[in-house]
Amino acid sequence: MTVDLGVSLSTRRDESLLELTGTLDYASAPYLRQVIFERFDAGTRDIAVEVSDLRLIDASAIKVMLYLHHRAAQLDATIHLAGTRGTVLSAVEVAGVAKELGAYDELDWPPSERQRRPVDLDGLHLGHGHWPPEATEQLARLHRLAPGDPGRSRIRESVIEACLPTAEQLARRYGGAGEPLADLTQVAALGLIKAVDGFDPDRGIEFGAYATPTIAGEIKRHFRDRTWGVRLPRRLQELRLRVNQARDDLTQRLGRSPTVTDLAEHLDAPEEEVIEVLGAGHAYRPVSLDTPTRTADDSTTIADTIGGEPADFGMVEFREALRVLVERLPEREQRILALRFYGNLTQTEIAERVGMSQMHVSRLLTHALQFLRRRLSE
């Protein structure tokens, strides 16, 4: 469906600016609603909708904006109009919601900070992108039934079946992150079941407002806990997310790729931790030892390039144990062992050095070796 609405997006930190052109009416308002909810899903907590170039806004669109304003408050976020004037300002004033929507507020977005990335409205697929409107009502009816009523199970299954396409759409948003889409779809389905079972209609919000963050959280936990080849401590995983966000922000602000020092100062974190996090990214998908190396010989793998074990590596433990045992021998026997095995002297030469007979040296040497052999074998 073609609509007379243009939307450009600018971002900074956890804020977004949507600049609208054309007409915001009954046909185009659902597209704006979808764009705003995608910004909330992405972690944006402050959204300004700039309408200075908007030609027209009708009553249904004003109703959608008011709905989004209330929904943002439920999500601990804010959304407000900006640049409201002319026909648009008159329309929201007649509706009595100009002040509530922040139509008189000034916009703190300098032109130098606006990227104005066009939003592809045709790619939003609104036909299956919304939660079924009857889901909230059905779950409210489910909660009014007695715990043992068989109708509870039928309603529960009906809601899950109706909402499953939307849960699958949420899973597709994360499909480019390296995980099989089938796995993410299963995780989203599990999150949907948790949302259905945990939804409380008495809180006064729609089911979709509760289900979306529940499913998104389940998918993010899947990435955090199940997909790492080498499991990182949660501290490093959380810092990695902050580093990735900071890298995008600083690239826009500095006009270049940020250095480790830039990231550390922006995050108020030690440079050593930032370096550790940047290096930890390789743990997400470890490279197999059977991966071919980039050489002319395609049969060579990474495992072939790794050095082997030193020939005397297995003797390290015995040598360390022997050092401790030698220290337990009498000083005279230690000296005889040193002259024999390190000085390469004969027993006769040793006898001359220590001032005793060759037979005595032989008996002391035999005694020392028997002691060491017995203790090492034990």
UniProtKB/TrEMBL annotation:
Q: Which branch of life, at top level?
A: Bacteria
Sorted UniProt keywords: DNA-binding, Sigma factor, Transcription, Transcription regulation
Specify whether Ion transport is a keyword of the entry: no
Pfam families named in the record: Sigma70_r2, Sigma70_r3, Sigma70_r4, STAS
STAS domain mapped to chain residues: 5-102
Q: Which CDD domains match?
A: Sigma70_r4, STAS_anti-anti-sigma_factors
Instruction: Please name the InterPro entries in this protein's record.
Output: RNA_pol_sigma-70_dom, RNA_pol_sigma-B/F/G, RNA_pol_sigma70, RNA_pol_sigma70_r2, RNA_pol_sigma70_r3, RNA_pol_sigma70_r4, RNA_pol_sigma_r2, RNA_pol_sigma_r3/r4-like
Query: Which NCBIfam families does this chain map to?
Result: SigBFG, sigma70-ECF
In Swiss-Prot or TrEMBL terms, this protein is called STAS domain-containing protein
Q: Which organism is it from?
A: Dactylosporangium salmoneum
